[in-house]
Amino acid sequence: MHKHVSAMIALALIASASTAAAQTFSYTSKSNAPMMAVGGVAPDGVPFGAQSLTGTTETMMGGKSTSASFKCISMTQPANDKIFDAHMMCDVTAPDGTFTSAWGCNVMGTDAQACVGRLLGQTGVYANRYGSVTSQNKVGSAVGSGQWFE
Fold first, then answer.
1. Within 13 Å, how many C-alpha atoms sit on residue 128's CB side?
2. Which helix (H) or strand (E) holds 50?
3. For strand 23-31 and strand 112-121, is the pairing parallel, antiparallel, or unpaired?
């Protein structure tokens, strides 16, 4: 399995959302070692697999810092049928609510990935909200930015 998949920190970004308008944020995330990984190497020598991981994220929005935790599941995609090298879904739990993120990631070097994603609010201040997010991942950590919309 790609080292990169284990670097997919979700991203998880949290944004302590307030009210109506679009809100931009930046974040840093740290992930733990995968709790479960499955997969192998295809006959062509290309690794494939899926894994689950957890971690924490620190978000900065409007001058305020907020911490949250996340859990993610990621899976590589077949070489002959893909837009992204891997897909990932994450659930994020923040002090002010929960949300889910869905990601597409591409390998950008030996130990790096670039990801784009969508945010879907679930509870609290995130309920009925959506957003977009980007991430630059290295093994065990990620940095990125995004925007919440009403």
1. 3
2. strand 47-61
3. unpaired
Q: Please report, for the chain, how many H helices and E strands are present, in that order.
A: 1, 9
Distance CA 36, CA 120 (A): 25
The model's pTM is: 0.81
Structure tokens at 111: 């130990």
Tokens 């090298």 found at: 85
- Helix (H) / strand (E) containing 6: helix 3-7
The single-letter code of the amino acid at 140 is G
Q: How far apart are CA 107 and CA 42, in angstroms?
A: 18
Residue 102 neighbours by CB under 8 Å, 6+ apart: 87, 88, 89, 117, 118, 120
Which of the pair, 44 or 70, is modelled with greater confidence? 70
Residues across the chain: 150
**The predicted structure's pLDDT at residue 44:** 82
Cβ neighbors of 79 (< 8 A, separation 6 or more) are 42, 44, 46
- Predicted pLDDT of residue 9: 39
Round to whole Å and give the CA distance between 22 and 46: 41
* Separation of alpha carbons 144 and 135, rounded Å: 4
